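# nightly structure sweep
# worker-07 picked up a monomer target from the shared queue
# config: single-sequence mode, recycle default, output format = structure tokens
# input follows
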Amino acid sequence: MSAAVFDTSGIVSWSGWGLAKMSGAKPTRKTIYRIASMSKSFLAAAALQLQERHLLSLQDSLSHALPEFRDKFHLDTCADDHSLADQITLEMLLSNRSGLPEDNPWVDDNLDIPVSDFLALVSDKGLRLTFPPNMLYQYSNIGMSLVGRALERVTGQPIEQYIKENIFIPLGLTNTSYTVPVSKTSHIAHGYLSFDSQLTWEEVPFIEGGALGCIGSIFSTPDDIARWSQFLSSAFHEQDSVMNKRWATVLSAQSRREMQRIHTPIHSSDDRLLSRDLDNTGYGMGLIVEQDHRLGRIVQHSGGLPGFSSNMRWHARSQIGTVVFANTAEYPAAETAAYILSEVCGSIGVPAEAIQLWPETEAAVAAFDHAIRARKGLGSTPVPVARNLFRNRPLEVRQQELQKLVDELGGIDPFQPELSQRWISADSSACARWAIWCRSGTLVGEVNLLSIAPHPVQALRICKANSHDALQNRLPHLMDHAHVITTQVV
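# output follows
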């Protein structure tokens, strides 16, 4: 296997273990591995690039992009099959919610099926959906390969050649290709399978890419994938740098961000997802997007073929990432990469995702906090409030409910830390939570401001924390999730 950690400067640490080939060759940073489905992000980038060049729209229906597929989709619960291809868009195919089912095992064995044979097969047999289009996540290689056919239709050349000329070369990915690089055979890792608990190994012959090559045939190195990841993650950062301006000529920052946002939520029972502290997970375009509870957006994708396993992932805000390659599908590349990234971010103190509050939000929290602690009443605050705040729940009722909570908790603790030490979390610049210590418990307040100036408080919620001790013990963790950045102490 080969594993690397990278940042904006490139690879900062690399290690290799085992054998790249049974002949005894050990892996180096120059060793080339097959990255399988990590190829999908390059296809998505090509599609967005062609959209920027006004040659297609990702909202085009499949029947528009490939008219011959108009009557090739079937759904048992749909009486009018002819309408299905009109409903499926290129964006749905790239984000895995076309209604086509998961197909990894078949695709792994048919990566080299010629385009003509694949089209003839689909024309003869059709494609059966398991759900209506645009409903839910299902990982369909066949669906994404249809995007490759659509791109070929508008470019007039094989999609692999287009990506080489318009992405690989401009980005300097000199060791990345869709075919076995003959001139670099000494650097290629061979893939292996074991059927006896790794006592013996059988070499897996390389399968050239055919109709499905655009979604799983790429070969690459850690350095090239680090550069590719840097190109994508830079979309979330300052766009005026010389490097970003040059990269924008390949694909705009807006389109790169589009690849790295959730288009299709993933509701998964996969232990690899459930065992980690994720708020949500979804498929972007050729990439999986995770919302880590502490660190925020993490972007990643795995690759797997008989003989190979791989994963690339990066923390979007810090642009720190890792790539792991292995020349056996039995190696848990995704789990290893996730562990490495978590350990690196933790060891160097990458801060939690932070949300900058509006000054008006800070002022509202400070005002209500003072009113509650000084027993001046919720209506005494100088900050603007929306009319609905005390109409939906009258001020007198809110005041009575607040007093009841304070009495239940033994009164406000006079030894109150500064507000800066009592922030809990923020959902956005306009919504924040804070704690108020009481003698035998804790109150939690939450304000939500309106987007229209002067940004009045439209919602105020004050409740009793379930456990005072638990909240105090968890406060550092809570504040480390979308923690609050304030501009001033009001």
